Amino acid sequence: MENMTATTARRVLLAAPRGYCAGVDRAVIAVEKALEQYGAPVYVRHEIVHNKYVVQTLEKKGAIFVERTDEVPEGSIVMFSAHGVAPTVHAEAAERRLATIDATCPLVTKVHKEAVRYAADDYDILLIGHEGHEEVIGTSGEAPDHITLVDGPEDVANVSVRDESKVVWLSQTTLSVDETMETVDALKSKFPNLLSPPSDDICYATQNRQIAVKKLAEDAELVIVVGSKNSSNSIRMVEVALDAGAPAAHLVDFAAEIDEAWLEGVTTVGLTSGASVPDVLVDGVLEWLSERGYADVETVKTADESITFSLPKELRRDLRAEAAELSAKQPVTPVTK
Question: How far is CA 259 from CA 250, 287, 307, in A?
Answer without folding.
Answer: 10, 15, 35
